[in-house]
Amino acid sequence: YGQGRWEEARAVFVKASKVLPDDDVTRKNLAVASSACGLNVEAIEIFADLTARFPDDASLHNSYGLVLHHAGRLEQAGTEFAQAAELAPAEYMYWHHKGTNALAQNKTSTAITALARAIALPGAAPVCYYNLAMALGAAGETERATMFLQKAVALRPDDPELLVRSVSIMNGWGRRATAIECLRAFTRSGRRRHDVELLLSELLADS
Q: Is the CB of residue 43 less than 8 Å from the CB of residue 34?
């Protein structure tokens, strides 16, 4: 559990739940592991019961939302994420999940609002800025989207994969000058990366 060995983890929680059938933490962990193993029906049944019995537990609603989203039940997942965010509005991750779920449903306005709320909260992770950029891009607001992509890259200076992905998106939006500058900033720092240098060469050649 926590290391991606979900089948092993699920086997442990199945045994534990037989010994402690009323232990809610064990049942929650079993549901998470079951979801990761593709056993969505089992996971959903457990979380439906847990959230019904503990309706004010934001973390349960969030976890239930993740299970539902993973199972492709996006609209129902959105309801759970919204409930989590309402119960714990200071938790940026709940707003992030609400936003990315809305984006998956092509509800760009809702996505932008939720993701903007996420980045306004303390501790917001770089992925929040990245996904806000994706939502803005989907809405055609590529200038603002590019700004948030730059922010995501700046927060993860040692993540060349994010840099290359973000720069490619910027270039697709017609923001080539900004894309080139992001790549140059990486190379000026003294770091070397073949895919970064190759993309920079390609963009300069097309300028």
A: yes
139 SS3 class: coil
Reading the block at residue 131, the tokens are 């996904």
Handedness of CA 182, 187, 192, 194 (dihedral sign): positive
Distances (CA, A) of 155 to 34, 45, 106, 147, 165: 33, 38, 27, 13, 15
Chain segment 2-43, per-residue pLDDT in tens = 556 878 888 888 888 887 888 788 888 888 888 888 889 999
**Residue 149 contacts residue 129 (beta carbons within 8 Å):** yes
pTM (whole model) above 0.85: yes
Q: Which long-range contacts (CB under 8 A, 24 or more apart) does 198-203 make?
A: 199/164, 199/167, 199/168, 203/167, 203/171, 203/176, 203/179
Place of tokens 């969030």: 62
Number of alpha carbons in the 13 Å side-chain half-sphere of residue 207: 14
